[in-house]
Amino acid sequence: MFADELKGNASKKRQEQAKLRRQKLKEERRKKEQEKQKNELENGNIEAPNTKATSAEIDIDSLKKEAAASSSSNKSSSAVEIALQQRKLRNDAKLLHRSATVLQAFRRSYRSTQKLVHEQTDILEKRLMDLQTLSKIISQKTQKRYCPPPALTNTMLNQLLYITHTTARYQSVPSLISDQHVSEKRYYSKISPMITNRHVNLLVVLIQYAILPGLHSQDDHLDPAIVWMESKQGQNKFLKLIRLVLCLIAVKKSSGAFLATDTQAAVLLDFIGDIVGIGEESVSENVVQFCKQYLFKQEVRQKPIVLGRRPLSLGFFDLIQLLRSLLLFPSGQKVNVIPPSADRERRNCIPQHERLRSSAFFALLMKIAKHENDLILKSRIVKEIFTVPILTWKMEKKLIDDLLGSEKKGGMPLFLEYISAFMDYHSNELHSLSSVLAMDDTTLTICPSQPVLSMCANFVQLGVSCPVLNGSNKSLFEYKAATLYFNFMSIVVDAVPRAAFSSRDSEMGWLKKGSVLSPIVLSNVVRDQCKIFTSESFVREIFRIACNKEVLGTDNILKKKDSKDIKMEEELASIKTQSATALAAKEASIDRTTNFWQKSKWAKNLKNIFTGKEKRKDSNKSGKGALMNTSSLSRELASGQHDDIPKPGDRLKKTETQDIESQVKLFFALTRAYSIIISRWGGGGREVINLYTSSSTTKLQKIISESADPIVIPLLNVLSFSTPFLSSSWGIIQSRSNVIKDLHGLTDTKQCSIPVGSRQLTVKIKNGRISFEDEIGSAVLLLMLASLSHSLIVTDDIELHEMQTPLPIHHLRRCILLLKGLIYRACCLDLSQGKEPTHFGLALFGYSSKIMRDLYDRSSRRALCAPKHWIINDLLEDQIRRCKSYDDYTALLKEPVLRVSPYLVSFKRRLKLFERITTTNREDIQGRNDGHSFRPGIHVHIMRGRVLEDGLNHLNKLGSNLRRRLIVQYVNAAGATEAGLDAGGLFKEFWTDLSTQSFDPNWALFAETQDGLLYPNPSSRAAHGGDSIVLFEFLGRILGKAIYENITIQPQFAHFFLSFLRGDYNFLHMLPDLSTMDRTLYNNLMFLKTYEGNAEDLCLTFSVTKEEFGKKTPIPLIPNGLEKDVTDLNKHRYIGLVAKHYVCDSVKEQSEAFRRGLWDVIDKKWLQIFNEPELQVVISGPTNGKIDVDDMKANTRLTGGYTILDPNIRRFWKVLSSFTDQQRADLLRFVTSCERPPPLGFGSMNPPFTIQRVSISSDSEKLPTASTCFNILKLPTYSSEKVLKDRLLYAVKSGTGFELT
Asked: How confident is the model at residue 672 (pLDDT cuts 50, 70, 90)?
């Protein structure tokens, strides 16, 4: 209301007008003042800061003017708002006026200070020049050093500190002497950023001619440092001097050069050395101790230090941290720890002056460490200096030589002394090395290399360059030093990220910001330095020294055979004439007629009591316990009773024993380091990692490679082919008691409860010392298995059996026994414990299973040992017995032992499992084969003259429906349907007729090897056109149907074709498989492989010639192969390509089609529990096709009134025993439509073989007939044995179709 009244008040308007007039006059006066000040400024009478203030005032005045104008024009503003606005303007004007006053005062103070600094600098320079001249004159005249009075030194130091320092004001600044903080404001001195080379010269002269003579003086009254120690002010002064010296050494100018030149830095570094007590002349002990407590911190600084042009605080002194900062950030900025040009310029990416300065500083630190011999100091050097990326590039060669040298002849290199101190100090933390090395002064964004990765690269560079370690000069090699180095590298290699030894062009590290992980590309330069650790030249030289066969006695160990070896050879010799398939069939037939006393466990024990066999004890069970499910050989090794273990009486000379122990310790250290590389980058655990839960393997997948990294190939090449490592490692496994004990723990859960997959190499403290021999047996075994696996790639069967390479056969048998126990424990005993796996344990498990599978596959072609040595007795017997349904049986296929090593389960038991799987699945789909429970089936009409064509038309389109019951009806040549109802027998007859035609080599779908084994004909397409692939798919389905129906067939397939049917063909076995396909071609390739002349003389090219029906066509094996000659350098590749072409490529299309058809009916998981000979037995039963009359007799059912005591039955078995093998096969086909018995014998035949009584009044009344659907032989009651034989042979041989019965 009051404001509205003022609007119409005339006096109020007059007041406002008067106010505006006054403001106008003030503005005019201000303008005059500004012009006056401008003129004075041009004449130099007023300081520049005032200009800023007046200009600011002009801006405020303009704002006032605008505000006044707006207030006059805007009649709607209230009087209160106008008053507040004007008050704010007045306050801003006062603030700017005070600011201008302060700036003017600062400028005047600065100019006066600079004037004083220049004056003091001139005075100090004159004093120091006079002092320098005086010192030189006295030195020339008296040959003594002049020592100025401490008062003069103190005065000159005060002048220097005043010149080189500025004063700043801080709140709560820490004291120089104590760690307490003050709450009040105080002045704090900092190094001036305006230091020039003139100031550095003054400091150098002051130190050289004033401070050092006093420090070295024998008279304490002349030592200025002693005077400074007497007060806190003096101590602060001395610390400022030290800080100034360090700053001049380490900080750069804006131009990129250091503040102190190299000559000046040398003097300053000598000064630092003197005050810590390592100079040539002695210094007061009080001074030395005072300096040490500030120059060497016991704890690592947590906050990062950056050396730049900004002033340094007095709290910064630590020499190790300063050197680390100088190495990391030589430019003074926290960017690009690794120069961007490092990939291209390598060592030249570091400027020479930076290398010189860093080397000089590091050399000082090395002298101090040598003098002090302090464990913590040396440990910090390893932790903080050797974790700097590309450290060796930042050092001069002379310094690197000092690191690689030793203090005394034959001693340990200096950098190894640091490593030893580091391990002693952090002995309880070495298992988490990454945590020990964690530093927060760098991140992956500015330093793309973790500390442990940088440490690995630096020590690899030093180790490869050190003649004491690299093996380049055997006379300089030191076993003790090399053992320490490789033991430590085993810890480092275990801790580095997976990128360290990865062959990928780029690898990621992960930077964690809160809960977010950001990928950072790790430095390829550092990674390349790490990879030198696996270079062929380095590994070859060091392993050649470690694997001295003469010192280790390897040859003698490998030649020895014990009684177990001889017995196994005798067992093998007794079966050597039999093929692998025959051995598999024999194993399947074992104990078919087992009686009660053999089947029942308690009956067996009762029998032993009566026979006195229970009194026999296993003489091999000695020591702490017997191995579980392993051979007595392993028990002997574990208990120390094996013949290869040196006896106590076999003592060597003391020097020889020491040589052997040094050799063995080095061997263990090397094995430990490189077994970790194999376990993490060898991909050995990928075969078994799926056995563990996904939660336990997620972490592992981050630190191990998913497959074998190419970086390990050169390593394995050296171990397998360039050094005697393989034989030496196995010799150590056979002879060293500690290794034997460790390996015994791998198979015996009582001795060591740690699962195989959870094993890891750890460092333990024993008797106050670090021990690296824990699990050393596992490390030796892992690296030996990796080497053996690699060598077997290029080893053919002739080399393995006849040339005894890579190991003698009897030692391979020992290896099989050892690995059998290990795999059994890992698969059947350990997984149930649920412990977390480790990369080392997985690799050990994986390589063991890989070697065993490889050896088992080779044994399937040519036996390495008797079949019983592969299996674990009674394995899965109880599980199979408990199964009732199809789901129960298929669930057993997921058992780890069947997924990884099915050969541990006896073939008979696996065959039984397969038979139960197919039978239960068939009953679920078709119903039981009892004649009453059949489900509706698929009707198929087959004309006897068109078995293949009609089968293809009716059955091929069914696919997986072939598992349903097929009802076959034959149509004779007249077109009439033959009599009879198919309950399975007609299909068996159909399959027999079909296989007889389609697998005939003359039909051109299949070809024969020299041994009469079938494989797809490479020219099948030329013979049958595009229908050949369809025919192969059809035959695969029909074969699957036959296996599914438990029908055995006649054809025998080649080994490599059976491998294709299993779906896991091992391409490493191409050459042995080629020998079965074409022996002549194989011999020619072996001639080329061992040809000592020039391979070019043979005029071969990378091509083969394909011949089809008289037409020859050249086929290149590689692009432009017809023009590429075979030479000595590429002949091994040529041999492999030729074998691949004939064994794989030429039959690939046909094999894949056949396999697709087979897998439509038979799940591939069902087949993968068999090897090739075993699969052949599944398909066709016993190889020789002989019928076991005793087995048939034991499993035959008698019906219609016949009993086992009936004279006719007795005559029948007597007649059957007199038949030839072919006559027995014809009889079996007459009754069952199959001429071969089931793989598991007649006990597995379903329906069982049955003889039904047919009463006759005369011998001529009836012939024997059969019901093939139910495997029934209808046998009349003939009067004599002769009549029975004649009638039976006549009926079998004169069959003209189903109508005969």
From this structure: very high
Which helix (H) or strand (E) element contains residue 213? helix 212-216
- Residue scoring higher pLDDT (863 or 13): 863
Q: Which of 839, 841, 845, 810 has the alpha carbon at shortest distance from 824?
A: 845
Q: Hey, what amino acid is at 1011? A: D
CB 220 within 8 A of CB 284: yes
Active site residue 1269: yes
Instruction: Note the pLDDT tens digit of each residue in 35-86.
Output: 776 675 555 444 444 444 444 444 445 545 555 555 554 445 577 788 888 8
By the 8 A CB rule, do 1263 and 1287 touch? yes
Pairing of strands 966-971, 938-943: parallel
Kindly report, residue by residue over 679-737, the tens digit of the pLDDT. Answer: 999 887 777 777 776 666 666 666 677 678 888 988 999 999 999 999 999 999 999 98
Query: Distance between CA atoms of 488 and 374, rounded to whole angstroms?
Result: 20
Q: How far apart (Å, rounded) are the C-alpha atoms in residues 306 and 312?
A: 9
Helix (H, G, I), strand (E, B) or coil at 1198: strand
Instruction: List 533's β-bridge partners, or say none.
Output: none
Pairing of strands 1006-1008, 1014-1016: antiparallel
DSSP 3-state of 1091: coil
Q: Residue 1136, Cβ neighbours under 10 Å: how many? A: 17
In whole angstroms, give the CA distance from residue 290 to residue 286. 6
Which residue spans within 1014-1095 are E strands per DSSP?
1014-1016
Rounded CA-CA distance 950/963 in Å is 19
Specify the pLDDT at position 1130: 87
Asked if 810 and 795 touch (Cβ cutoff 8 Å), the reply is: no
Q: What are the structure tokens assigned to 113, written together?
A: 């200070």
**Burial track 892-908 (b if 16+ CB lie within 10 A, e otherwise):** bbebbbbbbbbbbbbbb
How much is the average pLDDT of 596-614?
A: 46
Q: How many CA atoms lie within 13 A of 527 on its CB side?
A: 20
Element (H, E) at 1197: strand 1197-1199
| Confidence category of residue 819, pLDDT binned at 50, 70, 90 | very high
- Type of residue numbered 940: V
Q: Which of 247, 291, 547, 1269 is an active site residue?
A: 1269
Q: Are 1206 and 878 within 8 A, CB to CB?
A: no
Per the CB < 8 A criterion, the answer to whether 466 and 405 are in contact is: no
8 Å CB contact between 679 and 757: no
How far is it, in rounded angstroms, from Cα 462 to Cα 482?
12
Q: Are 464 and 470 in contact (CB under 8 A)?
A: yes
* Unique residue bearing structure tokens 């020049």: 129
Look-up: residue for tokens 């090593």? 901
Q: Tell me 437's DSSP state.
A: T
Specify whether the CB–CB gap between 331 and 353 falls below 8 A. Answer: no
Strand (E) positions, 684-810? 764-766, 769-771
Instruction: List, in sequence order, every residue forming a beta bridge with 941; answer none if it has no partner.
Output: 969
Roughly what angle, to the nearest 10 degrees, separates helices 563-575 and 809-824? 100
CA distance 396 to 516: 41
pLDDT higher than threshold 90 for residue 1267: no
In the numeric block, which tokens belong to residue 11? 């006096």
What pLDDT is stored for residue 508 in this prediction?
Answer: 72
Examine residue 806 and say whether the peptide bond preceding it is cis (omega within 30 degrees of 0): yes
pTM of this prediction?
A: 0.79
Nearest to 131 by CA among 106, 153, 157, 98: 153
pLDDT over 70 at 623, yes or no: no
User: Side-chain half-sphere of 35: how many Cα atoms within 13 Å?
Assistant: 6
Question: For the packed helices 479-495 and 414-425, what is the interaxial angle rounded to 10 degrees?
Answer: 50
Find the DSSP H helices in 296-392: 319-328, 342-345, 352-372, 375-380
